[in-house]
Amino acid sequence: MWKSPHCQRRQLLFALTGGLAGSAARADSLRVFADEDYYPLIHRQAERPAGLLVERLQRSSAFSGDQFVIELVGLNRALMLAEQAEGGVLGLSYTQERARWLDFSAPLMHDDIAVVVRRGQGFRFRGLPDLYGKTIGLPKGASFGDALEQAIQRGDLRVERDWALVRRLRMLLAGRLDAAVIGGGALSLQAAIERDPDLRGQRERFELLSQPLYLDPLHLGVPKSMQLRALLDRLNRALSRMPPAPTLRR
């Protein structure tokens, strides 16, 4: 018997949520979408999802019983698929705008949001206000929390956005940026330099400011329309029982 896509979608959601009727004790399976270039937290290795954040979510299954099928699709597509209630999104910063349509887990770990400058062009940096008036490179589609977003909206920062960290670093060397903001701390910077032959020869021209912009809590976000708060509650309990998350060394 032919079934409409709408009917099939309802049956899929029913299967994912275990029917939602007194199913808090049941284990669920959830598709989870994520960025594919967020080293060392989320990345592709031998055509499979890898990274510190991926490993932490997968290990939570031993404590909660829930299974997570992780697909690396890029951040923008991940958010688009979540808006269509196709699954959750891994590695999200909490923002008020996202909280209107997403339920958030407790933080799985914290990201070291670092500031990179050209060597010899550093400046006194103790926090976000020290970036005011400068031209800053940021990744497209990403958000590093409400404070930074509000500063951008007020015009305190001039922002250039790109799709790849390698491009951001090239813009920095070309003098088009005063600083580049990156997730993943020193490990992310080193990996980006190693991926690009031109940057490898200029690694000494980069300087990572000693003070991070901040430590960004990273969550699993699930559309409210999927009604999977019970799954997130089980994940939160699992995280509380797991060993502490790894720290990104600078």
Give a concise summary.
By secondary structure, the protein is α/β, with parallel strands linked by helices. It has 9 helices and 13 strands. The protein has helices at 5-17, 52-64, 75-83, 96-99, 146-154, 165-173, 185-195, 197-200, 229-241, and strands at 29-34, 37-38, 42-45, 48-50, 67-72, 88-92, 102-104, 109-118, 135-139, 158-162, 179-182, 206-208, 214-223.
Q: Would you state the CATH class of the largest domain?
A: Alpha Beta
Average pLDDT, to the nearest integer?
88
Classify the oligomer: single chain
User: Number of helix segments?
Assistant: 9
The CATH topology name of the largest domain reads D-Maltodextrin-Binding Protein, domain 2
Helix content: 25-40%
How many independent structural domains?
Answer: 2
Q: Please report which band the strand proportion falls in: under 5%, 5-15%, 15-25%, 25-35%, 35-45% or over 45%.
A: 25-35%
Overall structural class, as computed from helix and strand content, comes to alpha/beta
Largest sheet: 10 strands, mixed
Unreliable residue runs:
1-24
Task: Count every beta strand, where a strand is a DSSP E run of 2 or more residues.
Answer: 13
Organism: Inhella proteolytica
Domain Solute-binding protein family 3/N-terminal: 30-247
InterPro entries: Solute-binding_3/MltF_N
Protein name: Transporter substrate-binding domain-containing protein
